[in-house]
Records
---
Amino acid sequence: MTNPKGARAEWAEHARAELKNAGHRSGGARSAVLELVAGQDCCLTAQEIFDALRVDGRDVGIASVYRALELLTRMGLLRRIELADAAGYEPALPGGEHHHHVVCERCGKVSTFEDAALERAIDRLAHRLEYEVGGHEVVLRGACADCRR
């Protein structure tokens, strides 16, 4: 991703417009979740989102966070990534920019990576299978350097 902050700001604007076009009102938990996720570098779990909103003084219930995440995911505005013990959520950028994740199965640490060779391999595989791939998710699992020591 060449300009992650710019892309996330663009995503937030796009997401607000899509919500409005779908007839959803602005404000409340949905807007709080959207703003928080737009400011992150990587995926967050529902609990992490809830905790961050509470720390910021937002009076948002955990059920409202889950409802907002479900709606934003269903509308294609968020990507849901299966992590070690929970799902993480991050913006589904309109331009298709994305990164992948590696998860430590011991401590739960999540790291991101980009790999042009992997993207080319996925494109070659799609061509060989005669599929038009609209998106993909790569999550590698293992043990981080700290946990292997």
---
Amino acid sequence: MQLTDDTIQAQCIRCNATHVLMVNKNDLKRWEHGAVIQDAMPYLTPDERELLISGICGTCFKQLFGEEED
């Protein structure tokens, strides 16, 4: 994961696709210091948050684990 200004480049560990996310630096620091990611960065989609947490993009996550049920 690479942070430049307010842009993060994160690469999926499964498919190696690089994703660029817009993230506030202070929000990223809050998450890195223990805040729950959905509280620190609620503007990210669930797939974007999963990429930061596990390193797996949404497409690969769905292939591995299926769709989430309501």
---
Amino acid sequence: MRHFPAVFFAALIAGAPGVASEAVAKAAAARVAGFIDTTLSTSSGQIRQFAFDGDAETFFASEKHPGAADHFTLVLDRPVSLKSVAVTTGRPGGADALRAGTLEVSADGKTFRELARFAEGAARAEGRGEAALAIRIRPGADLGHPLAIREVTVEADPPVEVFRYPVEIAVDVSDAPEMKEWAEKVARICERAYPMINEELKSPGFKPRNLINMRLRNDYRGVAATGGGRITGSVRFFKEHPDDVGAMVHETTHVVQAYRGRGNPGWLVEGVADYVRFFRYEPGKLRPLSRDRARYDGSYKVTAAFLAYLTEKYDREIVLKLNRLMREGQYREEAFQELTGKTLKDLGEEWRGSLKRIQRF
């Protein structure tokens, strides 16, 4: 039996968030999340969320020249008491800044009022504690150039969460234009799940993709598949199962996994993705499993349930640690014994014994 060096596992454990992650999670829960609603399409990977990621070096850029009716709006999950808001526009060299336009606020997401006007590419205003559900940037006139938004800074009570893992999922429904509304909705849901997925699967030095392409195809006969930063979904399946959004969250998890090499067992790769889906994104949706048919290497939801058992009984961060091993090409079966003190086979039998014989899946 091959054992990993003790120093490797010491580093693995030290590199995990540990108890501190609970404090981080609670702090994040106290913050208000949001999303970007805009009429402007994205240019060359300069995604929408770059405008609110807390990084002054990144920026959103529009593909086309904005018109007077266009807008770029940060919509919050619930109203906050606004203290101040500041917006800086323009690329690093100053090009494509908004020289004239308005910065607006809305308490209900429908009716907006002007907070400030842009001058020299920037706008700032005091909120004075007024309720804010949406903050909007409007050119106010047709521009002769694209629009670049460097950073939106919001001070509010409670605080507004920036996009810690900025991402944009670009949708291609050329095979089924009638699916556009559904696909755009699902893409936004997967974007909202992206921070959770990355927290569950983070590892030192890993930077997830910022741009993902999601395409629906008529000739794809499965449900969905992922390769690199591309997700392919079946038009037929999702027309018949429009509520199965979790399948696309599963595929988005594969994008974040970003495993390389061929040493990772497929059952564990799929099990990790379904663990994120069924025990983090939509907990409680997975039906009970049958002791007679369950195997730890059953893949997908079966392996997900096995991982959930190990998480609860042995190590709350075992999925995170296994993910790191697979991502770094260090996975071996012996990892389970190093992390739990028991062999994978013994863990599988123990888990099966915890299930009820009369249940089915």
---
Amino acid sequence: MTINAYLLIKTLHILSATVLFGTGLGIAFFFWSSRQSDDHARLFAARTTVLADFLFTLPAVILQPLTGAWLILEGGFDPRASWILISLGLYALAGLCWIPVVWLQIKMKRMLEASVAGREFDERAYELLRRIWFLLGWPAFLALVAVFWLMVSKPTW
């Protein structure tokens, strides 16, 4: 049996998209669900969320454009096709939301570390960051849903 490079890269692309979407949704749910817990539980959720973003989401974020570009070139797709350009724009939008989300998660983790250590903790500032984090998640989530649809349907507008 020979390994078909196109199918291998396509599989990596699909797996990394699944990890990107699934991990993003899962850790967002996990972090959001801890919002009414005590500070120790919220800190555990924040630490786990930050770690998961670096272990799973970041590699998927890197793999997606690399495997996608390879598939476009090797698959004979027109890189100027509207569904590809829109997908790239939506992917960029998701990334522009994700970068501040990661920064917010790290900031909230540090705030919770201070609270658990008995240092000053501003609950109102934390809540503001958490709300911004939540709001930034929606356009990223919806953008990735749209990218999935575009990848599957490849509309010819």
